[in-house]
Fold these 2 entries.
Entry 1:
Amino acid sequence: MLHASAWRKAVGTLRFIAFSWAIGYGRRADLAPCVAIRHPGQVPQSGTRAGIQKKCDSIGLLLDSGSRPARRGSSGMTGLAKGGFYMLEINDLWVDVNGEQVLKGVNLTIPSGETHILFGKNGSGKSSLLMTIMGFRRYKVQQGRLSFKGQDITTMTIDQRAKMGIGLAFQRPPSIRGVKTRDVFNICNSNSVSCVELAGKFEFSGLMERELNVGFSGGEMKKSELLQLLLQDPELVMLDEPESGVDLENLEILGKAINKLLQKYLWRTRAKSGLVISHLGFILNYIEADTGYVLMDGSIHCRGNPRELFKGIQRHGYRECIQCQR
Amino acid sequence: MSEVRRNRAAQAKDKKAAFGTDVDLLQYQLLADHEGDALDLEALTQEDRDKIFQSGVDLEEKGRAGTFLQADHRIVHCAVKQPGLEVLPMAQALEEYSWLEEYYWQAVDVDADKYTAQAELHFQNGYFIRALEGQRITTPIQACLYMKHENTAQNVHNIIIAEEGSELNIISGCATAPHLQSGIHIGISEFYVKRGAKLTFTMIHDWAEEVMVRPRSGIVVEEDGLFLSNYVCLKPVHSLQMYPTTRLTGPGAVARFHSILVAPPGCELDIGARVVLEAPHTRAEIISRAITTGGVIKARGHLKGLKPDVKAHLECHGLILAEEGIIHAIPELEAHTAGAEMSHEAAVGKIAEEEIEYLMARGLTEEEATATIVRGFLNVQIEGLPPELQAKVDQAIEESEMSML
């Protein structure tokens, strides 16, 4: 006989699944799985269109349907941040690092409350895009415009952007000798949250007195990054491969942190936006992703339902995605 | 005995030192006993007190087991508040204890160079501190050598003895009066750490821009003894050169040196530590953090392993915060046996852009990020240092940051 508490747990889990379905899949029913982005000078060849469409369908992609991803109709939100602007708008962004073109005409818009995911091979420009949004000086904007909540941030310094509400969890954060993790947490802490309590909750207390990232494992670094962001509480949360190098047990804990960061369960009033890089797609289990992109060679090639997109990539690789739009 | 010593000194009085700019000692006045202002503790001005306080010496004597204060060549104050501890002016100690001859000029050679020679030929006191056998004096003892008279030479000789199984924590501040510009300080310090004893020596220097400083120290650590030296020099000085030698003579002896150095423009710091591991199972560590804001720093280190099963590490990290600054790390490892495990690590450069930008992404301005990294760089947590002395070191660092950035 099942114990009463086990029953309650089972019922709770079922309720939770139903709830997740209602807010997750239900909401995305009208969302096109993928929109291939047509680049200037690239004309779709009408003769083969039907054939390609068929192939794309099989991997969950659609050719350019001309529509933007639908926003949450049910919640009545417009997707615009306060003042009627998008959280993030990137127009025709060209970026150069040490003389090498790393971004080539990226266009991307993230409405308030939405989380978008970037897929792409190593070296496709995903991290470069995040670093450019954050304002790192090595990433020189040659052309184009970045705006955050309607304000042009293209020439702003990193700290100005951070203070406005942009936060980045680094893929490979630097080690800083002599600077304690606790000190960096205090720097991030914008809401006078108890750092000690937060660290305790995420099983991080033992690392607080250590020098930042000195001798940390991959998973510990990722955790440190996410906790820093939780303290910083940015409106635009950028995560650069938050799950890579993390063991399964810690993946759960990190998932929890990411949920919290992106307000996964606050779908009606969600105000946080996210831009997340993922290789492995695990992250899709922990966040409510609205739109996915495939980045190839410095530009965005497809846009669509992130789960479908990821399935397609798993099945056929990134190359197919590009094939699709031609 | 003393005759022989004086002869050796006389012969070395023009002998140049192995390192550092050569100083013409004749240009400095040697105060005779009757010269200069006689001082007692009450006669010290507030300015003097502040300067002395900044170098870690609290004239209120709160939380201190003993105090020694010498201004120029004169003893200002000498007091002991704890049994088992002796603090005496060196001249008096030499008079009272004939056995002190066995320690006097034994860890440092009297004819090493012109500075040791001058300290012998023109002896101007200094301090004698001793913890009696088995006495653990955990409360710090403070000693201050203060220079007040313009363009003079201060030649002191100190002996510190931690008898068997005892413990001593000394904070030694050296400073110059606020308006003093030039002078030379020669300080002979001989440390004897007996079997199972522990001696912590924390030295904070606060000199003036034209002052030359030539400390000459020797340390002998016996079986299972521990010698811990912390040296902090964050204020401008014209030229400071020292290269103390430590001998670990008994199995299990340990010596650790930490130095935190800042060289502003016009300042030359040539600072090192040498440890000879003469017995098996001895350990040594030399760690320095050096920052130049325009001055020259030579960070030397020499580890000499003579017996198997010894372990030693040498580490120098340097930060260059101004284009014209120079940091020269000169680490030397010398193993005379296969069983010596010795390593060194040196890194010199400017602050990594990546680290600054990382902290900027957390909301700090570029200046704040730089200050945080510099503070972290200097923040050496010294193992075994009593919290009170660590607080003094931290305070000195904090004060210097303001002027540095």
Entry 2:
Amino acid sequence: MPPREGTYGLLAEFVTPGDLVRAAQQARKDGWRRLDCYTPYPVEEAAEAIGFHRNKVPLVTLIGGLIGLAAMFALETWVSVLAYPLNIGGRPLYSWPAFIVPAYEWTILFAGLSAAFGMLALNGLPALYHPLFNAHNFRDGATTDKFFLCLEALDPKFELVEARAYLESFQPVSVVEVDY
Amino acid sequence: MATSEVRDNPQLDSATGEYRVIAPGQTFRSVTEKITHIVLTSSTPLGWFALFGVGGALATLLLVAVTWLFLVGVGIWGITQPVAWGFAIINFVWWIGIGHAGTLISAILLLFKQSWRNSINRFAEAMTIFAVVCAGMFPLIHVGRPWLAYWMLPYPNTMDLWPQFRSPLLWDVFAVSTYATISVVFWYIGMVPDFGTMRDRSQSKIAQYFYGLASLGWRGSVRHWARYETASLLLAGLATPLVLSVHTVISFDFAVAVLPGWHTTIFPPYFVAGAIYSGFAMVLTLAIPLRKFYHLEGLVTERHIDNMGKVMLATGFIVAYGYGMEVFMAWYSASHWEAFMMWNRMFGPMGWSYWVLITCNLAIPLTTLWSRKLRTSIPYMFFISIVVNTGMWFERFVIVVTSLYRDFLPSSWGTYRATKWDYMTYVGTLGLFTALFLLFVRFLPMIPMSEIRMMLPAAKIKAKSTAEAGD
């Protein structure tokens, strides 16, 4: 893939989460679809405002947990019944109540790892590079105390001058053009 | 509490009369700077080096003791027949128990939406991990030939041998290894956004590079945050049954045996409650000096100390019920062996250890923690935390040793005496724990910044009309 060039998007900076959410709601209402908000802590209202309501992390976690459960229970049964049958105090080889505990632990292990790594994978992380870090004001505030709205150039409505004027109408602290 | 006191003291919430969770006057930036400065400053406080020196020196004892153990064998310890489980198992259970409060704070209190936990959850989780490190070592070095400890895992091998899945000791392998893994993952995922902040706040290239790598490129997109919040809740929901199962499985190591003093169904809940009891004591032992040393009184307030005191009071009473039930069952079971075990535990040659346990776990904390004045008194809570940690160590000692040393046949009775190697190993893990914890405090953000920001008044989103009017 050739290196992308040109403009990634326009980044508007706000001081309060309320201003950001109102701007994002309006932008969504006005037909913008390729947009994202950047906040120093989870702002649920902002995610709702840009139309991000549900995610696949719970499904990934469920699948992971079921795999863990099935894998450990199958291993225990195979080991105890077929691979290495041992007579322990005359108990049946297939003594399933005793198998519950390790199977339970592995359910949690696999579900937990799936939740964590699934979340990262769905987020496209780890990422060593992102164009937003080229914006001079992004690193000063996005992870501390500033709230950003980014209109991306991939949006069909995106036209540099008009988009800038549109963002200025929300009275942000600044609007910065971000390059790839 | 008197109204005038509430009005005059800015640390108190005027609506409820409780101590505030976060002292007034904090902003997003002040919180961030306060927490990142501890790590990003180039001047390490002298006291840190002094404590690290002590921790490191004690950890060296562990190295010496374990080296000698590997060369000579477990015969250097005080374990013998009939007390074949000595300090190693006592310390294992004690350390794992301490870890449990960290998971309780980070997972269970998150599910219950107890937002006061936000200030203390990061270092409580760190405490969990370092406690599990210390705990996990004991069974490994206790197995006799520790270089073969991996035989406990099910893996295809040329001997065609497989582990025996009906044994609680094997369940322990899975419970503790899962607990360690999930705790580390939960802790790390929780730190990712804060690593992003550290990357952006640090001035030095090296710090930016390493925090940048650790942050995985976190940029705070609200889509990412939404998935992140879901994953955190799911991890909390998974860690909650996990933490309850870990000490339950450990109690099975005892309860599944037929020995009087071990063979009892009260063990699982009583072990879990005891674990949380001692864990909160350890959080207090760590939090009280930390907030003083790093001037974090605005973020870890009297409210936290007070609430932890309440949790200790509640879990302490569950533990007290467990002790009571043991005595009751010794009589009600009408079993000669049970009755003798209880009498011997209280009045036998090692009866002193039982009374130390009763004094430290019940007599001192459960009579005084009722008082709000004492619960918010910092020196007193520090004192109580040390008392309860001591008491809980003696609980493990009483369970392991006083059940074992005089069992069914008087001809096989014996005694237990720990050797200097036992003490060195135990004190060594305390040193290792201290050293690891100090490294954590120096290099990682010890208070979760993103969660604190959420709790600030500025994070409230106001409707357009009231926004202009102000708060």
